[in-house]
Structures are given as structure tokens and as C-alpha cells.
Amino acid sequence: MNAVIVGAALVRDGKLLAQQRAWPPGHAGQWELPGGRVEEGESEAFALARECSEELDVVVEVGARVGEDVPLPGGKVLRIYAATLVSPGEEPRAVEHRAVRWLGPDDLDDVDWLPADRLLLPAFRQLLA
Ligand SMILES: Nc1nc2c([nH]c(=O)n2[C@H]2C[C@H](O)[C@@H](COP(=O)(O)OP(=O)(O)OP(=O)(O)O)O2)c(=O)[nH]1
After folding, report:
1. Ranges for the Nudix hydrolase domain (predicted)?
2. Domain coordinates of the chain in residue numbers?
């Protein structure tokens, strides 16, 4: 089975949270959604909640799928789920990343997304509509 990379489309007040990679050098500075590899024995929702805790230091509730799977190099796929903060007042912080930013519908084109995420922009836009 293809390795699944899950990503969280974390929305608050009509804005989507994006984070800026600090590594590897080829992708540093580019933007993505919080997430990562689903480890053996984990559900996708569990993996997403774990990654959001590790990367943003927040607790999230995972919702419905967003967009279609996007193939990644190496036979992996990127699969996005909507997510919300369990405590909306809690502010995500960039634990491993360079920065985090809440993007409204008009800001989605302002950042340099990873290529796979760029394909998902219509789905992100629909989610914020
Ligand atoms: N988290 C995340 N990864 C993405 C996105 N878009 C995209 O192409 N990717 C790619 C980049 C990486 O090749 C891969 C995820 O790597 P990662 O470094 O975040 O995952 P991980 O923490 O589980 O890393 P590892 O244990 O596999 O090294 O998916 C996205 O929006 N979010």
C-alpha cells in the first residue's frame, strides 16, 4: 500500500493555517499544511492529531476529507482532512517550522506552497467559502 501523508486543513474564523518549512534545503521557505506520515498501527485521524500536537502544540478535532489524494514522489500520497482547534483560543506555534500564518481566501496565493499543496488550492478555497 502507498504510504499516506496526512495533512490538516485547520480552519478558524474562515482562515486556513499554513506553516513554512525550515528544511530540507530544497523545500525550506515553502509552505504546507501541518501533518506527516501515518505510522504503523495509527489511524489517519490519530496521526493528524499527533502531528498537530508535535508541530503546533495544539489539540485538534479531525473532520471530513478535503479534495482528492495528491500523488507525491516515491509512491506516497498526500491526503487532507479538515480540522478545528478543540480550544479556539489556543494559538498554534511553529515548533519545528519557521513560521505559521492564518490565510483568508484572498491570501491563499500569497505564499509559496509546496507543489502538491498548490494543486489543492481550489479545494482549500472551497473549504473557506
Ligand atoms: N506535512 C505535510 N507534508 C507535505 C505536504 N505537502 C507535501 O508535499 N508534503 C510532503 C513533504 C514530505 O515529503 C512529506 C511529509 O514529510 P514530513 O517530514 O512532514 O513527514 P514526517 O514528519 O512524518 O517525516 P518522516 O518521518 O517521513 O521523515 O510530504 C503538506 O501539506 N503537509
Report:
1. 1-128
2. 4-128
Does residue 32's CB lie within 6 angstroms of at least one atom of ligand 1? yes
Q: Evaluate: CB of 5 within 6 angstroms of ligand 1.
A: yes
Task: State the burial class of residue 21 (Cβ atoms within 10 Å of its Cβ: 0-12, 13-18, 19+).
Answer: middle
- Written as tens digits, the pLDDT of the chain (129 aa) is 569 999 999 999 999 999 999 999 999 999 999 999 999 999 999 999 999 999 999 999 999 999 999 999 999 999 999 999 999 999 999 999 999 999 999 999 999 999 999 999 999 999 999
| Domain spanning 4-128, CATH architecture | Alpha-Beta Complex (3.90)
In whole angstroms, what is the distance from residue 32 CA to residue 8 CA? 10
Residue nearest to atom 16 of ligand 1 (CA): 36
Q: From ligand 1's centre to the CA of 37, what distance in Å?
A: 6
Q: Does the CB atom of residue 54 touch ligand 1 within 6 A?
A: no
ipTM > 0.95 for the complex:
no
- The reported pTM is 0.95
